[in-house]
Design brief:
This protein is mostly helical. The protein is built from 18 helices and no strands. It is globular.
Amino acid sequence: MSLNHFTPVSGLIGGSLIGLSAATLLLFNGNILGASGIAASVVVTPRKTLTEDSQHWKLSFIAAFALTTRLYVSYIDPDALKDARLANDLNATVVSPMGFVIGGFLVGFGTRLGNGCTTGHGICGLARLSVRSLSGVLAFMATGMFSATGCSPTCPFNKYLRASVETVKNYFPTESTKDIGTILASLAASVALPGFLRKAPESASKHERDEYDSNRSKIIPSVVSGALFSVGLVISQMTLASKIYGFLDVKGIKGGYWDPTLVCVMGGGLVVSFLSYQWVKGFNVFQNSKALECPLSQKKSVGHFDVPTNQVIDFNLIFGEALFGLGWGAAGLCPGPAMFLAFAGYPNVLLRWWPSFFVGSLLAEQVKNAQLRVENNKKID
């Protein structure tokens, strides 16, 4: 088996930066790096995300991520997203416009129903040795490989999900879509800015002021985390479709074009994230007398770690993550890289994948609410 496309060093470095992004949110803010949840919150719970002080860190994270992405692709390395394999390799997978629509919807619905993606369940969940997250990861990895590998020319869905290599020129940004990416990044920054300037009301009690100060102190760590996440994704090359399909399409093992770089990315991220949990009381595997009971940026009177403790492996988890995997294999995108490519101005990601993702997320939220109503009615009866 040839490993000509394998880039372990950039994978480990980029993955470690992603892990450091997760560690920053955890240790300073007490929050989890869940790309799907952060992105979906803007549409699924917009009022809460935009108006509640406790949610402002998400806006700061998105703003920093967006501005870092624009800075990186415009000035630091304009060639960072050039995918030579996509343009020259006959074995490369080219996603059709319909493939982006279907993939975005499945990822949005699945991650909302299963409560996580490659970052939430993968980098963060596995790092705290969550059996629930492990089950979710196994589900989306299995269906992701099934979807990517099975969508061959003989597959009945191939004509809907895949395009010819000749159409690859339509995949890359145009000047107008780059402008859209810049506008969105500027909009994200302008929405996040009031969080830096807002002051606690004069009539607020001491406890309310402490809560306000703690929420405001989350902003800087969120900015650092968002920037690290963006840089980690592009350095690891998880923003390149050929890297994702190079791993998910297991026909490449026999064909000699398999690329295990994703393993290095996940490995690097998991090691750093795992180490960060050794400093959180109740989640540390190794004895640590200095483990934190309160995040570093928070006041002890109000601060706490918002880390999931649910270990239930239920239908929503397995079915949701399985759908996520199918969408991941269909379009080659999970939420983190899709955020990067959208702000970089990739037209199919901007205009097809993300709108479909938001529709899927909204629909899954309605399904979860309906399930909750049925459960409550049963309790009443």
